[in-house]
Each structure stands twice: as structure tokens, then as C-alpha cells.
Amino acid sequence: MSARPESGAPAGSATISDGNLLNVADLSVRFATEDGLLKAVDGVSFDVGSSEILAIVGESGSGKSVTAQTIMGLTRSPNAQIEGSIRFRDKELTGLRDAELQDVRGKEIAMVFQDPMTSLNPVYRVGRQIVEAIRSHSEVPAEEAREKAIEMLAAVGIPAPESRVDNFPHEFSGGMRQRAMIAMGLALEPSLLIADEPSTALDVTIQAQIIRLIQRLNQERGLAVILITHDLGVVAEIADRVLVMYAGKAVEQGTLDEIFYDPQHPYTWGLLGSLTRLDRPRPRRLPQIKGLPPSLLAPPTGCSFRPRCPHAFGRCTEPPSLEARLSEAPQHMDRCWKSPDEKRELRNVEGRIGLRSEA
Amino acid sequence: MGPFIARRLVRMVLVLFAVSILVFLIFNVLPGGGTDAAARRIAGKNATPQLIANVRKDFGFDESLPQQYLTMMKQIFSGSLVSYQSQLNVMDQIKQGIPATFSLCIGAAIIWMAFGVLFGYLSAVHAGRLTDRGLTILALAGISLPVFWLASILIVYLSQKIPIFPNGDFVPFQDDPWQWLVHLILPWTTLAVLFVGFYSRVLRSNMLDVMDEDYVRAARAKGLGEHQVRTRHVLRNALIPIVTLFGLDFAAVIGGGAIITELIFNLNGVGQYAAQSIGNQDLPPIMAVTLFGAFFVVLFNTLVDVAYAYLDPRIRLGTSAELA
Fold first, then answer.
1. A43: distance to nearest CA of chain B, Å?
2. ipTM surpassing 0.85
3. Which of A64, A257, A355, B259 is close enough to A56 for a disulfide, judged by CB 3.0 to 4.6 Å?
4. CB-based burial label for A252 (10 Å; 0-12, 13-18, 19+)
């Protein structure tokens, strides 16, 4: 896990916001449902620097996908309330009209989704779908757009792109489809790629290829990436910074090293503790975080992780603020009332970081 | 695509063969009573012994069943089948009825597809809002109105009280295109209303399903305009099941589904011919019209399969073609 490739921006440098590409400040997304108001995202803030990889991690239902889709304006609907600010370069995306947002989508920010099997329209040839993306943003002759599509397919490692461009999606394997999705996203050379669990639906060897591809595009093209995942192994390999989400809130955020070597929130310990590690003797059962994420319709009062946290104490009924609690790492923020010294002791489970099953 | 079409054509011929055997059995064998009874039924009411003897000879009732089948098919396909009651050639009568029936059915089909798709699209795009609710009520009303009632109301109000349209009859297109059109507007409306209502409901729900598909979200994410997303990605995919429906309904309408409309507006089409023959218990025309209807149902099924393969490339795979 410590073997992070030395390429890419060194951890720490990204925290200095030198011309941030994306600033998300105090973003909240609520959906009016039949059962009440669902707080999918609750006051999340983060920055993404150019050519930086930010990983957003958390369980299903923690609000990471909604956060990502809200950046693209894909959650806009009559029953959604979106508050806070999303600044991309010098544009406030939350204030844009739908038509203006279309110019940002695809052209400046691209998105790749979780399931490549269903993300391509089955009735159109792959090349045509890439051409469609290109031509929706620029007046390019069809032939030129097609050349560009072939070039992009080659760039993402599709063999024989000249003939593959005319295939239908069902003639592609899952990994190839995800590559095609990435090619489609990158055809207009956006500066930010949002990858929403891009490898989750693929088998393990293909997962690694897709992650390598994203890493390569990040290094070669200076593409900034928001990588949404629950796979901390992937995060350890390619992320510069990490945002840990739980029940719609950011519970911890910091550089990769801060999150992996000095995690401050018990939820992060739980995530790290549930990783399979090949460098340790295998325990009988993988540790898990007991219980389920809380309902976003009626989140618990105080700390939202309290019902599942073995270390909860009196003060946890009071909602903890997201703040830097370590004097030596002013950008490393968490939402836990315990003192850093207590945490260092509590997170030690049999010599490694983890969440105890009982306090 | 070539082998696919060939397979479908072979299947079409086999199905038609099976249908013709069924028609033969239903008319000549299953009612029982032997060949004498069959000959008497075909000869019609008040037939003379001489006429019945002629029928026995024409239909080869003294020979084996397979031979009887062949004789009957030969009569139908050579065009020599006659109605023993009216002494008119059945094929000539059907040919005379075809222009009216086709004019009615094709025109109505264009109307019901156009309005069905338009209303379904608007309903889906404005789902839950006033437009959608209004169209839903209209669609349900259209589906619920009986054809004979709607036709009568149209005639009473738009032909008798306010004489805008003629109240019936068919004018061939080559005689007078304008009169052809004017005479067909009420029949087209009568026949199309049910299908407009039905198709708009089906398309609406298909479109709402497709709108939730990942590829629609992906199309938005690549920056396509809302109109492009709705037409190229949502409507295009939602229309695929509509094509099946259309093929079947259109064939059914040609093959007898327009009988009531033809009768009320006195269009003298194939359907009206069938209805009169049923009233007179005149079997030869009914045999021929039954096969005529079956032919169109099977033909349009085949066309639907081919259109499907064109619209949805996944169907073109050999394996799924076998499964389909």
C-alpha cells in the first residue's frame, strides 16, 4: 500500500490551491420524495487542482455519485434542491442554465459511469456515439470527427480501431466498452474527468487496466480526475487526495498519505481495516463495519456514524464539525470529537489500522 | 442480414402452409357429416341437387383428403373459386374490394402512427404535468369509444347536421383524388382513434422506461441538447416495441379488423365483402378472405422481424435470431 508510483504530483503539493480547476463549497443536494426530504449530500466542500486525482470513497448510499452527478448538473430535476457553490475555472456551474451547462458537459468536464454494459446506446455504432459527442460541441465535418474517434479509440488501447469504430456496443467486451466510454469522454479534451466507479462492474484484471489507463491519461495529458470508488486499493495506487464520505457528509479529507497513514475518523479506520492485505497473515474473516449506513431521510442526530461506532461517547450526540484537528496537517480535516492522541491508540487493532468490533 | 431474411422467408412460407391446412380442415372436414354435408354448406342456402353435385365435382370430394386439399388450394390460387350463391368469381370480388380496404387501412395507419407517436412523445416529455394528464384522458377516451358509436356520431355531426363530409361510399383515387380524400377522412378517423390512444399510452411508458437508462444519462453527460437526447436516444429506442405492435395491428386491420368501419361507411372493401358473405352463409368467399387475412398477418410479421433486426442490431446475431 505504501508503494505509490513516484510519478504524478507529490502528495501535499496539491493542497496548495494553485489555480484550482474545481471548487465545490458547501454543496447540499436534497430530493423531495414521497417519504420526505432525502438529504443525499450535506455540506460537502472540496477542491480539485489541475492534473490532480481526487478520490471520493464511501459505502453505497454515502452520496458520492450524487455529488459527482451534481457537478455535471445531472441531478437537476423538479424534486431536487441544490445549494452551495460549484465553481469550475471561473464559472459558477450551479447558476448556469441547462443550455449553458451543455457546453461544459463533455467539453470541459467528462464523465464515465459505473456500468459500461448499459452506458452505450445499443442501437448505434460505437464510432457514431463518439462522433455525436464531438459534433455536439464543435462544427467538425463528419469525416474529421470519425478520424478523431478512431484516434481516441487507439489512445485508450482498443485494438484495430479503424474497424472497431464501426462495431455496435454488443460486439465489445465490458472492458472495451469502458475504454470506449473513456474515449468518448476525452474526445473533446476536457480538463476534468469524473469517473464514477469506472471499474466496479468489470472483472479484476480489466479493472486494473482501466485504472492504469486513467492514470496514464492523468500523467500524459494532465487530466484532472475525480475518481469515485469504494476500492481503497485503487485509491492507494493513483489518488493524490482523498475525500471520505459517509451519509452524505464529508467525514474526513486529506492527502493520500494522511488518510492512509494517519486516518482520523473511525469510519476511515473501518474502511482501511476491511481491506484484504496480502502482506499480512490472513485472518479467518475479513473485518467489517457492523450495521448499515443510516437512512438519509432521517439521519441520526449528532455524529451520523455514532450508531455504528464502537468508540462513541457522550459528546457524539452533538454534530462534530469538519475541521483540522492536527496542528501539523492544516489541510487534513475530519469530523470526530476524539482527540488525535486517543485516536492513535483506538485505531490500533492487532498492530494495524482498523475499527474494533467492540470498544 | 441476408441469411436472416432468408430464414424468415422460409418460415413465412411454412406458416402459410400450416394456415392453409387449418382453413381446409375447418371448412371442409371438422364440421363433420362427410363430404355431402360439406358440399351442401359450400353450395349455400336453397341449393339444388345439381348445384351440390357441381360442388362435389369442383372440390374433388370423391377423392382422398390430401387430394381434396390440393384441389381447394388450386381453386383459390388459380382464381377460379366462385360463390355458388351469386355465381360471382371470388377473386374478382376481392380484387374489387382491395383499393377501398387498402386506402382505408394505409391512411388510417399513417394517421394513427403520426398522432400516436406525437401524443406519446408529448405525454412522456411532460409526464405528470397538465399536457400529460390531458392526453391521458384523451387516450383513454379514444380507447374506450366503440367504433360503431364513434362512426355514427361522426356521421350525425360532421355529415348530416353540419354537412362537411360525405357520409360514406368510396371514390377510387384515380377517379378523383380530392373526392377520395374527402370521402375517407371520417372512416380514417374512426379507425385510427382507438390506435392513437393505445399507441400513445404504450409509447409514453416505453419512453419513461428508456429515460431511466444509463445511456440516456451518458448522452446528457456528453453534452447533447435535451432535444437530441429525447429524439435520438429516448424516442429512437422507445419506438422499437411500437414497430411490432404496428406490424401486427396493421395486418389485422387489413385482414378483417376494419369490417365495421367499412360497413358503416359503405366502402365496399374486402371486409364488407366478408361481412356480406357471412350474412349469406356463403362459404367460398369466407375461405378466400380468411386466407387473405392470414397472408397479411404472416407477411407483416415477417416484415416486423426484418425491421426489428434493422432497428435493433443485437437481433441480427444468429443466436438471438434463432431464439426469437
1. 24
2. no
3. A64
4. buried
